[in-house]
C-alpha cells in the first residue's frame, strides 16, 4: 500500500472532506489516492511511516516516498493538481513557520467554522477505487 500520490486526511472533518471532493473533481487523470486517518488502513500507514500518531488537524501528502505535512502538503498538492492551482506553490517562499502558523489557526477552528461528521465519508462507487 504505497501509492505515488497519497493524501492522508481527517475523515470526519467537513473542511477536509470538502477539500477531498474539490481535488477529486479536478483530478481528471486520477493521480491522487486518499486515506482517512481514522480508517484501519490509515492506522497501518501511520505505523509504516513510524508516525505513532499524526495529529488529526494535520493533512499529510506522500509523493515519491517523501512525506509532506501541513502547509507543505497543501502547496505540493496544489502544484500537482496542475492548472492555475499550481500557481499557489509560489507561496513556498514564505517561511514555513509563517505558513504553518496560519495552517494551525485554520486547523484549530475548522470544526467550529465548517462542522464535523459523526463518521468518515463513504465514497460513492465511481470514486471508491481512489480510497485506500
Description:
The chain has a 4-stranded mixed sheet with strand order 2-1-3-4, covered by helices on one side. The protein is built from 4 helices and 4 strands. Helices cover 40% and strands 13% of the residues. The mean pLDDT is 83. It is globular. By secondary structure, it is of the alpha+beta class. It has helices spanning 14-26, 40-48, 70-81, 96-114; strands at residues 5-9, 33-36, 60-63, 66-69. The protein has one domain.
Write a short abstract of this structure.
The protein has four helices and four strands.
Please, how many helices?
4
- Fraction of residues in helix: 40-55%
What structural category do the secondary elements indicate? alpha+beta
The whole-angstrom Rg is 14 Å
**Major sheet size, sense and barrel closure:** 4 strands, mixed
Q: What oligomerization state is this entry in? A: single chain
What is the overall pLDDT average?
A: 83
Instruction: Flag low-confidence runs.
Output: none
Q: What is the CA–CA distance across the termini?
A: 8 Å
How much of the residues is beta strand, in percent? 5-15%
User: What is the N-to-C succession of helices and strands?
Assistant: EHEHEEHH
Biggest sheet strand order reads 2-1-3-4
Please indicate the count of domains: 1
From the spread of the alpha carbons, the general shape counts as globular
Overall number of strands: 4
Task: Chart the SSEs and their pairings.
Layout: E1 5-9, H1 14-26, E2 33-36, H2 40-48, E3 60-63, E4 66-69, H3 70-81, H4 96-114
Amino acid at each position: 500500500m504505497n501509492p505515488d500520490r497519497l493524501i492522508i486526511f481527517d475523515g470526519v472533518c467537513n473542511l477536509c472532506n470538502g477539500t477531498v471532493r474539490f481535488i477529486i473533481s479536478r483530478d481528471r487523470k486520477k493521480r491522487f489516492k486518499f486515506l482517512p486517518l481514522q480508517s484501519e488502513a490509515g492506522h497501518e500507514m501511520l505505523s509504516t511511516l513510524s508516525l505513532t500518531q499524526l495529529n488529526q488537524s494535520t493533512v499529510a501528502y506522500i509523493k515519491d516516498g517523501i512525506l509532506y505535512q501541513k502547509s507543505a502538503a497543501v502547496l505540493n498538492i496544489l502544484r500537482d493538481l496542475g492548472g492555475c492551482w499550481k500557481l499557489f506553490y509560489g507561496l513556498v517562499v514564505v517561511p514555513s513557520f509563517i505558513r504553518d502558523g496560519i495552517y494551525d489557526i485554520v486547523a484549530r477552528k475548522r470544526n467550529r467554522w465548517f462542522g464535523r461528521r459523526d463518521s468518515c465519508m463513504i465514497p460513492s462507487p465511481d470514486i471508491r477505487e481512489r480510497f485506500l
